[in-house]
Amino acid sequence: MSMAMNDSFDHIGEVLRNAETIAIAGHVRPDGDAIGSIVALGHSLMLAGKKVRILSEDKVPLNLAFLPEVGLVEQPPESIENLDVAVALDTAVKDRLGDNVNRVFAGAKVLVNMDHHGTNPRYGHLNYIEMTSPATGQIIFDFLKSQGLPMDAVVRDHLYTAISTDTGSFQFSSTTAHTHRIIAEMMEAGSQFWELCQKLYNTFPLRRLLLQKALLNEMKLSAGNRIASWAMSHELQSEIGTQPGDTEGLIDMLRGIDGVISPVIFEEMADGRVRVSVRSKDERLDVSKVCLVFGGGGHRMASGARMAGPLAVAEQRFLEALEDEIKRIG
């Protein structure tokens, strides 16, 4: 997507500087990039003297609840009086903000849309979409720096969380030299991220280990062992008592299998729909194309969709489409 199509950081910065009341939100079922981005931008603007509300349709997942100032994130009120600017971060399509967030955002004079998903249709009044960025958090760092906005330890911790989680701890091919320079710059400013990493990547509730056990017992290989998949039933989730955030990163266990180029996890939701998370380890395999067939989208190497159930039917339909795409690349 051409940078020329984007509104400039200076234009977006001017709109935010002229605003008195700002609301910021990310996508439903927020992950590290969504929470990290909305809190980093929101807290920075608060330090700059703005009245900011940081919203999320769903609660902060428990695996991120330790982050500093995460209590600033609130579920949407009925409305926000005199809302000047609404900012959507890391949200590929407007519906993914959630019904309640969209109700609040409808009252804003200006909607700003900042994201790194290539499938984003540019639904804001002002848009900054950079699909080559590995994380929305990286865009927020560049924006804050370009506008001279405050970056204290809280902002830096959230930016690190956003960037590190969406790059697979800097393992994914989307990670750039600029990504590493950002981390170095934040460390030079005083941050040491080892303790944060311990909590992000090496501290788990027992529930998480029980999910890993089920994954290892139930995973399937198909397409000549090039697809590794696991279907997580609602019954299993209820039995274990899973909480939001417990499944984060589980797909990397499948991703690590030698010979597998596409890991997939199917998660049966309470409403009967099926959440699909899929990755690609081969640059030739664009998994977002497969997800688009089922109303989803995302990145070439990491994408998702929500499908109608039942679980077994959704699993079969998606795997057949994914296998067809794999056959096309040879």
Automatic annotation (TrEMBL):
DHHA1 domain location: 240-327
Cross-referenced InterPro entries: DDH_dom, DHH_sf, DHHA1_dom, Oligoribo/pAp-PDE_c-di-AMP_PDE
GO molecular function per UniProt: nucleic acid binding
SUPFAM superfamilies recorded: DHH phosphoesterases (SSF64182)
Gene3D superfamilies on file: 3.10.310.30, inorganic pyrophosphatase (n-terminal core)
Domain DDH, first and last residues per copy: 22-163
The name this protein goes by in its record: Bifunctional oligoribonuclease/PAP phosphatase NrnA
Naturally occurring in which organism (per UniProt): Phragmitibacter flavus
